Amino acid sequence: MKIKDITQSTKEVTLDVGEFIRTECTAFDLNKVEKKGKNDLVSYVDKEAEKRLVSELGRILPAAGFITEEGTIAQETAEYRWIVDPLDGTTNFIHGLPIFSISIALMKEDKVEMGIVYEVNREECFVAMRGHGAWCNDREMSVSQAEGVGDSLLATGFPYHNFEKLNEYLAILNELMKNTHGLRRMGSAAVDLAYVACGRYEGYFEYNLNPWDVAAGTLLVEEAGGTVTDFSGTDQFVFDRELVAGNPWVQKEMLSIIQKYWNK
After folding, report:
1. What is the CA radius of gyration of the chain?
2. CATH number listed for the domain at residues 149-262
């Protein structure tokens, strides 16, 4: 099956599951929330959405393995792997804050070849295929052309269970708050990356990330003309739990600021 056909089929599945999530949001019962760990929440909506995605994606590419947030099936080693977050922004979802998404990536060996981020509430479907560009609802995307952090609106995430690097993180925030148009914390890494790809943000950084948070979104940024690295400046960001993404000029400056404080 060609990557364009895989992408189209995956998009159709994503939109269908997105409709399920949107419907459930209107009458969600807070009493059905579970805790996986400190401030790490999950609901029946996450679990059911993942089951549906895994079932349908398995039909699209039967030989592929899976890396999934809720562990619907065992993670497998295969040439192709789906990396799936059925509901990125669960805390937003359960509190009724309308910023959450589905994130699906298809990785071949160590490269993400296709990524989809679907922001459920605005019904925006961000799609990228390696070497074919990035699109939002069939309109081609490009990163912002801002030339530095001084002209930038940036996104980040706040630590919610691992606070070991909090002082370093606060030092980075301190410098960026004083020298940018502002910082935003939306609560969905996949959406943050999609918004970098389409130019709404100039850059985004975060740590304590998981592959399902970022695999699809990082390809969106790269295919929209942006740059993504981990905090050390390497391309191991999908599994290294930290990343800096942005247009080429802003990303370089952000990385320099982060490295001033992060490894002290």
Report:
1. 17
2. 3.40.190.80
Query: Both tokens of residue 243?
Result: 């990343």
Q: 31: burial class by Cβ within 10 Å (0-12, 13-18, 19+)?
A: exposed
Write out the residue limits of the CATH 3.40.190.80 domain(s) in the chain: 149-262
Overall pTM > 0.85 = yes
Tens digit of pLDDT for each residue in 26-77? 877 666 666 655 544 467 888 899 999 999 999 999 999 999 977 655 445 6
Per-residue pLDDT reduced to its tens digit, 112-170: 999 999 999 999 999 999 999 999 998 999 999 999 999 999 999 998 777 888 999 99
CATH, domain range 3-140: 3.30.540.10
User: Which sign, positive or negative, has the C-alpha torsion 234, 191, 39, 158?
Assistant: positive
d(CA 73, CA 110): 21
